[in-house]
Amino acid sequence: MTISTTLTIQNNSGCPIDNRGGPDYRDGSLSGSAPASSIAAGSSTTFKVKQNNSLSPGPEGTVTYTLETGNEQVSLSFTWDYSSGAQHNEAYTAGTNTALAPVTIFKTDTAGDDHAATYRVDFKARAPHEWDLVWALSVGLINKQLHALLFHGLIPSSFTQAASGGAQLTVTAMGDPKVSVPDDQTTHLDVLLAFTTATLQYVESGVTKTLPLSGTTVIVSLDLSQARVTDPSTLAATSEARQHIQGLQSLNYDVYRLFLDLTNPSLFRSLQVVDASNKPVALGQAAQSALQATLAGVGHMDVAYTTQAPGSPASIVPTLAKERTTRYIDNDDTGNFSTLNVCMMTRGRKEPNWNSRFGFTGPLASTIDTDGTPKEARARMFLSQDTLGEGYLKPVVLPAILKASGIPGTSLRLAPLTYQCSGARSNSSQNDGRGEFFQVNNGFDQYVAGTEAIAFTTQPNLSSTDCCTLSLTGEFQVNIEVSQYPLDFIGLGLKDVLGKASYVQPWTGTVTLTVGNDGKLVTVVDIVLGQAPTPTVDKTLDGWVFNAMNKLFNWSSTSPQDEITKKAQDFANALAATFRDNASTALNIEDCVVLPTGAALGYSLFVFNTEGAVQVDVTFPD
Fold first, then answer.
1. Considering the domain boundaries, does residue 402 fall inside one?
2. Model-level pTM greater than 0.90?
3. Which of 116, 129, 272, 340 has a CB 3.0–4.6 Å from the CB of 6, allowing a cystine?
4. If we measure between CA atoms, which residue out of 100, 89, 114 comes closest to residue 7?
């Protein structure tokens, strides 16, 4: 008898799993179809592995995949080991980033010789739910914008609109339009039109009738529309907003308008009229149809303008935007916490396809002070840690740190906002890798090889309450090796190491990020030198060796430890000056969303929130 196991990989992550590697059948062999090359969200793949014969080892092997989150790729490996020994021990394991894509393993059949097991892959979305960037526009902020549009005459306060069949809506005076969020994770809003003085004319059974609508509110629930802006001068927006949009277009950004289209009844989900007491006003079918058709007199009401950068820019500029709503029913009276969320992906990343990623926790946009009094209506911007790291820290801050050290280096991403940076320079290019040549009295040529290195890591500090901070831990190190080649005269390049020395200067630091009113990041870097450990010095090294180090590293002392400490202090001073002299480094988040009254006006409270995402409160002009 031979043994076998049937394996199922179940994709419960909501993300595609693809890029299959292997399978590697170290022992045993495949029986039937191989595991699928890709596993769509909600799907699974099943394959069977078996013992080759009754005397051979039981099936053992591995298959690998990649889970595509939209932001990054998560490596997955699935391993099986079903022993052919007397006990028939079996083990099923998975390799994954458990914080992102945990894998649960179930043995589904353990009877007899033919067993079965299932690997279930789940996904834990990180804040802000695997979107790079989320702008949460509070209902209060949107209503402020609609008030401004009406004030500037960009939304009509009075109009007469006719429709086919003798329908006509005459509005002599209308109050500020308002919106509300009817439910969660949708693409529609309720629009409330307060008619101060209005009448509706319609035809019913061949008879023209008039319905007074003065003092009523028309509530239209409709889907938001999105369209590419081709001519900013035609937008129902202030001149400031139009000029800003023109500036974005001059940078080759596409700009899209997110708007409420009352000229298109096919977008209406529902239409009702309520009186001053919020009681429904009964409408017959003819009146309902007439009102639905004549609301076109209100036209389009722009809510926001979003940008899309071409290609895959390195900066934090979106290449894709989707809207969703979040409703907070406990705050209807005073808070206006409910939000229209503009969810963005940056740097050419893919759109997440899992609906639960819209399940934002509230409040996204704070419009109430801690004492319960009304607060200025704002937007709240959320930025994922990975986007801040890949879009700002890696291309801007880390190169500046390495440049201040004077040592060329590279950075390696370990996790969001966690990087390992290192660099080195040496004289290994001299004399075929031997280093600096010196002629000494014993008649043999000697060489001094030296290497100067920097290494440091970054990590987010989530405990700060008034800014975003990252911790730095690093060191400078100098290694010296003195060698001679006594058999050079007969052509044998045998190396004789005379001695070695190593000097280390540890340091720690903090990167502090705040945001200015222009949407630029203000970066401060502080470096503190630590206690240097006792140098490791081979006793055979003579003082003249340090002259070689002076030549290599531009030292001016016979104490290498003093020199490396001075080097670290100069590095700290240079780094502080780098960000002091150029404190506001472009983040360009003001180029992501524009409202009808203009671009973002003020930024505050640049912090990590409780979910670990970067959070910024944003104000816009009235």
1. yes
2. no
3. 116
4. 114
